[in-house]
């Protein structure tokens, strides 16, 4: 059974609506106040508008390399979802705790905070760091500025644990993501004069077809990472809009596509080839109308996470769990950014399951909270000097 302090802390965290479109400052003020009660100093790293912030804190000796616990404070929206309970009031039923963010991923933050008294009472010989971010759900935007600041630490952490929901299994790799928007500008005319126009929808269709062929090539020729259920990078077009009337050759079409790449398959390579094809089509289009164009806007991008080349660290982190198996996940996290930009051995391990995340009536099993508490307690013991 989870401790009352974990339950109380999670109850408070869930009460804040930190959907990515909203500020997270009230939640961060609560976390700072919580830490202050135990004499733990923390710093906030604000966005440009001063409406959101990351939080960083350290418990233990800063002159030694320790373990960084990472979590995001924002959640996906509840709008348009049919909930049986109030999504911002922690509700218990059948050994489950319901609320937005219970699975993804306020439970990990709650357990980390509730473990602060144990961290302080232990004789830590190496520190435990907290790094809590904003805007993870819309492209891992917030944590990037925090990572830039962490680069200047005199002593960097030895490893990072991202507490995304894995049912407390150690995950050593996940795919990255690149999402882009393509805007095709053609030349409109009456459909009876179609050869004199430049049909933006037709050119967009050719681009979508190019992406589909590229996706098929990835499926057939790789590169492959056989540990994934889908062991190659995927490409898909998710949204397309164009045209205003059937009897008008459309001068505008826009579509969004994304690449979900395995860590050793750089999506910029594919984007470069796609851009070359766009330039080829622009050459065709401008022969008919000089003001036609194809524009590509990268909406968001974050790297995949590859297994760290540090067997000792991975073995150490694995020993903190109840499960000897390593795994992979099909969703992205901030882990790739910590690994790529801070060069930290990074894993993903946290309570709950993404099968319950992002859905109405999101929940976490109470036993997952208890497992997470045991994990953090083992971490504390491993970083402490025996009395």
TrEMBL record:
Domain Peptidase M20 dimerisation, first and last residues per copy: 172-281
Gene Ontology biological-process annotations: L-arginine biosynthetic process
Signal sequence coordinates: none
Domain of life: Bacteria
Pfam families per UniProt: M20_dimer, Peptidase_M20
Swiss-Prot/TrEMBL cofactor(s): Zn(2+)
InterPro entries named in the record: AcOrn-deacetyl, ArgE/DapE_CS, Bact_exopeptidase_dim_dom, Peptidase_M20, Peptidase_M20_dimer, Peptidase_M20A
Gene Ontology MF, one: acetylornithine deacetylase activity
UniProt KW keywords: Amino-acid biosynthesis, Arginine biosynthesis, Cobalt, Cytoplasm, Hydrolase, Metal-binding, Zinc
Family indicated by similarity: Belongs to the peptidase M20A family. ArgE subfamily.
Stated name of the protein: Acetylornithine deacetylase
